[in-house]
Amino acid sequence: MSGKWSGLVKLAAAAAIGATVASGATALAGSDESTAARSKEPANIGQVKLDVKAYYGDYLDAAGKHHYSDTSRFVKDTDRIVSDAKRFLQQQLGRVKNPAVVLDVDDTSEITYGWEADNDFGFDPVKQQQAIDNGTFVASKPVLELANWAAQRGVKVYFLTGRNEFQGPQSLKNLANEGYPAPAGAFFKPKTVAPDYLPCGLTCTTVQYKSGTRAHIEATGAKIVLNLGDQFSDLEGGYALRPVKLPNPMYYLP
Prior knowledge:
two-stranded antiparallel sheet
C-alpha cells in the first residue's frame, strides 16, 4: 500500500479491475441520448463499496469489525490461482537451478480486507502503521501454504513489498508469527539510501523498484519461478518465469 492514493481513487479503480460493478441508475427519460450519457458515467462509489464487500463475503463480528468469508468468491478465486501457480512450480522443480518465489506482502502474503472495510476503504498512513505495529493483518492461507510447501522443497522465498524500510522489522515479525518461513531475503522500499542495484534511487516507480529488485535477486544466482502480487505493477518488468496476479478490487497502485 502507499499513501499516494486516496479512498476515492482506489475505489474508482476497483470498478475497472475488481468485482463486477453496476452501471448506475436507470435513465429516467428512457431516451437514447439520456442512456448514452449515463453509460459514460463512472460507477457509483457507494455501489462499488457494496460490490467489493459482496466479493469478499463481508460479515461483522461481535465488536462490529469487518471480515472476509472463507466461502467468498475472493477466497475461491485466490485458491484457484495459487493452486495453478503451485502446479507450475512443482513442474519446474528439478528443471530450474536454485528456484525461488517472490511474494508481495499487502493483499498477497497478508490480507488487509477487514482493516480496509473498517476504514471505509480510505487510506491513512498513521492507521496503516498502527495496523502493522499491532499485527492486525491476517495471512492469506493459500499463499502461506504455498510458501511453506516451497521452502520445504528447497525453494528460496523472498518478500518484496512497497512498505518502506522503517516498516521492515515489524512486518517480518508479523509474517513469522503468521507461520511464514524465514525468507532468503526481504526487500522494503528505501527511504534513506537506495541500493546500488536501483539506479532510480529513491524516486523509483513501483515497477522500477520491484523489477530492479527481482533482477538483483536473479543476479545472486536464484531463478525466480513465481512472482506473486495483487497489483499489475508488482508483476511488470520481467525477471520471473510466471507472474501471478492475485485478486484485489479494493485499490489500484500504478
